[in-house]
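Look over this one:
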Amino acid sequence: MPFAGSPPPWSTGLRPHDGTTPAGPVRIASSRKPVAAPSVTATAIPAESAAPPVRLLTADEVAARWQVPRSWVYAASRTGRIPTVRFGHYYRYRLDAIEEWEQTQDARRP
């Protein structure tokens, strides 16, 4: 413990023992050998059997399409009312599924 009235150690250019130096963090050389990434071979998909790309919409795009608040789209997604694709905590909406859902909603109306 420093004496009363003496300057703190970091005011003299020294730092407390936190693993850093005045020039930055201390780097310790690793004894581990680098590991090569596994090789991946891609197989070509014939052009005639390739499916067309799927268009994914965001909640903002769906909300604009239906002229509803974005919060309504998220709430309908959570309850399973509209078709939703989840990517972790992200919600996305397949355009073809949304169009099909719109058709079924039109058919349900008298």
Notes: The domain at 54-108 is CATH 1.10.10 (Arc Repressor Mutant, subunit A).
